[in-house]
Amino acid sequence: MSDATRPRLKVLAAMSGGVDSAVAAARAAEAGHDVTGVHLALSANPKSFRTGARGCCTVEDSHDARRAADVIGIPFYVWDLAERFRRDVVEDFVAEYAAGRTPNPCLRCNEKIKFAALLDKALALGFDAVCTGHYAQVVTRPDGSRELHRAADMAKDQSYVLGVLDDRQLAHAMFPLGDTETTKEEIRAEAAARGLFVAKKPDSHDICFIADGDTQGFLAKHLGTAEGDIVDEAGAKLGTHSGAYGFTIGQRKGLRLGNPAGDGTPRYVLDISPVENTVTVGPAASLDIHALTAINPRWCGTTPAAPGPYTAQLRAHGSETPVTARLDGGELHVAFDQPVRGVAPGQAVVLYDGTRVVGSATIATTQRSTPGPSGA
Fold this sequence. Notes:
Protein name: tRNA-specific 2-thiouridylase MnmA
Domain tRNA-specific 2-thiouridylase MnmA-like central: 217-282
CATH topology of the largest domain: Rossmann fold
Number of helices: 7
CATH superfamily of the largest domain: HUPs
Binding site for ATP: 14-21, 40, 133
CATH class of the largest domain: Alpha Beta
Enzyme class: transferase
Order of helices and strands: EHEHEHHEEEHEHHEEEEEEEEEE
Strand content: 25-35%
Shape: globular
Radius of gyration: 22 Å
Structural class: alpha/beta
Oligomer: single chain
Distance between the termini: 44 Å
Helix content: 10-25%
Domain tRNA-specific 2-thiouridylase MnmA-like C-terminal: 290-363
């Protein structure tokens, strides 16, 4: 059974002020559910959260969400979760970069805010489900258990950032946009036909709490500057940097190295050591990863009982790659059928069985196809 065939529910629709969440709320109401709209105030200074089409959660977005709710004909509220967002998302983001890891704040927001803080409050107030504009599907099996699946339209699938949802959260999640193959242009046309002002509103992008899109500047403000060395795989100094947190595994641009590699090939970031404050660079071939270990696994349903073949996705807009995965205590060990690149500690690895999301975990270490500078 999909979202569209569920019985009448009391639904809390999270409305960001964008077109997707507005159409999702409208579809939920049209399906006969008792819908209430809510906008999450996630910043103590919301005017700072938008520059052009960047980000979300501004006063402007709150007004847009309210106007959409008025058109749909549903009650609307603004809930202040700024302190929880600061602690669980923004501070976590800064701490992860300080530790040399590359976090995904959208995934953390879904885990800690939209389907934890928001859902808990919704259930306490008597709501049955939280509705969002994510492109994914919750499917109910004959035995009553629920599964998270990719969206019907793979081009818009957002199941990767929902891979942190557990069975309890899936039982109260509703994604009205996920089971129809509708282009974004058609979603906008639907919004216009419903009289929703946000039909032509640009999509938000990048990190909502970094208003100008300058992640390195944001981190420098919070972590300060600390000059360190940029070295090659043999440890020879090639240049300096003003903060190891300003780099990510696989990065090519912005290294500012005066001398090219001896063979003229580009250099890429291979390793980041916050303790030694060094950044190691080298050739693209040294980025090849054949296995990883991930921690804090979260399962979208039943915990896998035995090692098995899956596919894995390593970033929000990445492709799938075949893997073999096994659990060992609280760790997930993933071996790739073919080497992959651009894998960094702190990222999430999300496992799939066909279109079904099995679960996710946070990458702790990687194993290179050729030995890395620190055995990473």
